[in-house]
Write a structure and sequence with these properties.
By secondary structure, this protein is of the alpha/beta class. It folds into two domains: about 190 residues, Glycogen Phosphorylase B (Rossmann fold), CATH 3.40.50; about 170 residues, Rossmann fold (3-Layer(aba) Sandwich). The chain contains 14 helices and 13 strands. The protein has a seven-stranded parallel β-sheet with strand order 3-2-1-4-5-6-7, sandwiched between helices. A six-stranded parallel β-sheet has the order 10-9-8-11-12-13, sandwiched between helices. Helix 3 runs parallel beside helix 4. The model has no long low-confidence stretch (mean pLDDT about 90).
Length: about 375
Amino acid sequence: MKIALLGPDPSFKGGIGQYNHFLAEEILKEGHELLFIGFLRQYPKFLYPPGTGDGAGTGPERHYTVERILSWDRPFSWVTAARHIEAFSPDVVVVPWWTFFWYPWFAPLLNRLRNFKRVVIAHNASDHEDHGPRGAASRFATRRILATADRVIVQSVEEKRHVAALGARSVAVVHHPVYPQFRSTVSASDARASFGIAPDAKVALLFGAVRPYKGADLFAGAIAALPDITGIIAGELWDGALATRLRELAAAHPNLRLLDRYFDDDAGATLFAACDVAVLPYRSVTGSGAAMAALGAGRPIIASDLPLFREILPAPLARSFAAGDVVDLSRALREFFSENNKLQSEEALAIICGNFGWDRLVREVSTAATAPTD
């Protein structure tokens, strides 16, 4: 089967690039032919936190070639991308959808490619934070993109209902697969030493780009009330008011470490090796790369009691706390460390391998390619 994939690769920051990388690798592993239409430039620099930018380095080793065509400063680069895809003549075109920024490129491209099967992977059809005119624009763009798709893939049952209400014709649920690159052979004591943390410390980690909906302020508040637990917030701070609040808490509480920077795969693996548990205090969630990074690293999880987490994280993998409740998060952290939880059971490993493989995603794409058109 011939599969065309659009979007960023992991040389750009963000979970979508990582996701596309492992999807591309699995497509090749299963013997399909791949055309990867990537970005030349993803976003203008002013959209990033001050002092940062778009690049994430070279990324992991890959076995595919990226045709770098789409660029935010080239409004008609979608035409070139469409011509490459038409020449390839794929059985199916796969497009991730996560931000309305790329609507002016993706919408005309998908419309032009209507003679091919089109699969949209909706990472973020529900808007976490945008309200007012920006939120209205996002909802408009999402509806139009979903309407072009022969199949929409989402990461939860709740999100399936949401995209169906937005007009998607055919929707399938494939839970976010596990990220394998964060498993490390570094010992916990050595990993902690690299961050200046005592080898016998109790360590909880919040990992990834820090945005208000992910609840870093809740995590910081809980850690501030638990001086015997070291909390690490590791990722770029994308909101000025939240950044100020977190810095104030970190200055007042030595057990709260704020690491405001982007972490590549190797540095991220060291972070997971250093922690006992990953914490996901999200206020809302449609899919979580951080959860799959933690599971891939073999770390248990404490997560907000939200529908997606209830769906994908059974008891061997995680414990929950009431969403938005700092006191209950503190309770969950205390209980976790008093019980010395580990993610090592055969049941837990079977759940991870069986439910969160990249092969499931490729299988769904292949099914969509051969399904009759509505």
